Amino acid sequence: MSTTNSSNIEDTQLRANIDRSLRHPVMFFFTSGAVWLAISLLLGIIASAKTHSPEFLSCCSCFNVGRTMPAHMSTLIYGWGAQAGFGVILWLMSRLSRQECKQSGLILAAGHVWNIFVGIGTLCVLLGAGTGITWMAFPKSVMIVLCLTYFLIGIWALIAFRVRRGGHIYISQWYLLASVLWFPWILLSGLAFTHFYLGDGHPLMVTASTAWFRSAIMFLFFTPVAVASAYYITPKVTGRPVYSYSLAIFGFWALAIFGPWAGMQRMMGASIPAFIPYLSAGAVILLIIPAIALVINVLKTVKDSSETVANSPSLKFTIAGAAGMLVFTVMSAFMSLPDALKFTQFSIAQYGLELTGILGFFSMCMFGAIYFIVPRITNREWISATMITQHYWLFIYGIAFISVFYTALGGFMHGYILEMPTEDPSAAVGRLFPYAVGLTTGFVFILFAVFMFCSHLMLMWLRLGRRSNHPTLLAGHASHSSPHGPEGDIEKLESAK
Amino acid sequence: MSSQPIDPKKPDLEESTNVAEQHAEVTRASSAASREQQVRENGLEPVSVWVFITGSIIAVIAGSVLFSSNNLFAYNDFVKEGYIQAEDTTGPPPVPQGAVEAVYMAKGSATYKKCMGCHQPDGKGNVNYPPLAASEYVTESPVALLMAVVNGVKGPITAAGVSVNSQMDSQLNKSTDNLEMAALVYYLQNSFGNNVGKIYTPDQMQQFKDLNAKRATEGYTTEAELDEYRKIQVEGDFFEPGTVINKKTGEVIE
To answer: pLDDT tier at A172 (50, 70, 90 boundaries)?
Structure first.
């Protein structure tokens, strides 16, 4: 018994040391990512508001839709998405490989460079120096610096995996390793095919390259990071192993094999060989399979732990994220059917789908991971369960509203109008008006949610969190029979003994 | 905290260290880590047959979408059947045009920018460079004017009663566009108080070019030579005032 205890304590100390070694870089990625998310939502609200109220902020050209829209997407992807992903990748990989991080200073410095260049790129876009390429609106030089900076960050996850302790490779490690390796591949291919090989060439090829790039960032970077986090959080919080390892591996290979083919369905009817968009449409439909694998595994794992689900913010967000993945992949598949593409190909459905994927699926999983990781790396507990609950419900309400009303209904209505070129243009604009207002409304809900999250995270970053043995739970309070001892300030409890 | 765990590898730990204090330190620093669930194993549930059935249905749908294209490897048919390209009804782009006086003044003043440093914006000249305002070499004949500009002038010269003795290098190439020459002549003859009013056509400038080709000497002109050229007038029809011309080519637009 004594041996077990002492190895347990050694193990606890190792985990605490890993957390401490990563405190600064991971916390920096999370907080700056959350701020970029808020900035991105503000820009998104401006861009969306201008589509239904063109006079809004018409004082300055930097608030034009043509500038706020790419700035909104770029900050969402490179400011929030990539940085939340980096934080989760580094922490999860170190924990699962049971290795402390030896170069946290270097990662922190690279994180600063990343943020500075995302800032420069956003300013360039707002001042009119953007490239105009979807999802790669930052100037070429900024994108190259971001790419180089990524290598300084991502390499440490690879190194942690290389020197891992213990023979077993967890399912999360598969996904993390894939995302670490796929991200530079996507980024370099996207840059090469839009700026170098074809930059002076055919705009059709640039469009095709970005169609693939957007899909690849979503399915081959955001998706594996989010799935890795779900496969870690779910068993960790419930204390039950992942329901089926083979199913998880099956989902991984389905994603790895079908994911790279997706994206080109947006080029349906363009003058590229016909098999490319049809192949992509098929691949997008097949991507439902990894989503089903994740949802089955998550739901089966938490099946008998309904109380834990009600209590744990991490688990709540993760389950919502897994459901979001299923909704996102089913919507993508449905909108990629050749008959549906007639309506969705050039309509707001594509943008709405991107929001559903990034906010409803990826961000939910990242929030779950952040609510789990931050108390560990700061040694403080979340301050307010109310704020977490408000974040959760406001965010879910906002993104569900956008997905149903804007993406699905608005997307098809827009496509329907586009299919009727004889209709009076002002009547067509009138038909889109409610959906544009709906998007702004949904964004405002999400912005409130993110404000809750962001301020909470800032307080944690300032080390103002609770010092307690007890995690912050959503429903009810810790009972006196809790195995963690009585509730209260941890240092006072210690000294009272 | 009554029974302190003893590390079997360091059995003497409790003698050198305050174990209770150490343990409290660990508890404080790793409160969250120590209450974590330890999940080392993986679930060994087999993949349900329903997953395979659902997967197969999805694969069948995906396959039917892939093969719903009639011809996957058609490299020629990129547009829908029955597609007709819209006719371009906008016509050719508009020709840049304007009244000849305005066009000449604009073009001439642009050319004059490089003369301005010496002859001054008001055309009054300075100590070394003679005035253009009221200068007989400017107003009497375009031939003398262009001879001076194209070949340069050296030696003493008196213009509009002002005598100078200096040198001007060639300012225009002898193959310069006729339109530009005509515009410069019009600009100089109708600015700085000069009021000649003749509107030379670009074609008339060819007469100057022919004369220039027949010059006896190469290089700078002199006062005596320019005095000869002052007597030569160009022949042919002038532009009527208000004639509309193409800004690029100088052709008359009806």
So the answer is: very high
